[in-house]
Design goal:
Length: 95
């Protein structure tokens, strides 16, 4: 069983966590967004093969949502960050 590094609690067993799916951004101009923009936002995902960013929740812990980079081929979570932090370089650095 892998351990996932919660940005608040530290490493915990993955059974304590829930995946909320791919990290997507709501259209900037929500009221002015056309049907295509809403359809893309609601229904379409990139379905990345490899590492991509998702939102996860420490459901049976602090109950906080956070970003996690997960390899879809291996299911390995390679990095986690608070939602307010940018995703990118500096893996494992979420002080
Ligand atoms: Zn936690």
């Amino acid at each position: 069983m892998q351990q996932i590094d919660c940005p608040w609690c530290g490493k915990r067993n993955e059974t304590e966590f829930s995946c909320g799916g791919e990290l997507i951004s709501r259209p900037q101009d929500a009221l002015g967004a056309d049907d295509k923009a809403w359809t893309d936002y609601l229904y379409f995902r990139t379905n990345t093969k490899g590492v991509h960013t998702e939102v996860w929740r420490h459901t049976f812990g602090c109950r906080q949502w956070f970003k996690a980079e997960r390899n879809t081929l291996t299911h390995q979570v390679v990095n986690t960050r608070k939602l307010s932090e940018e995703t990118g370089e500096g893996h494992g650095d979420h002080g």
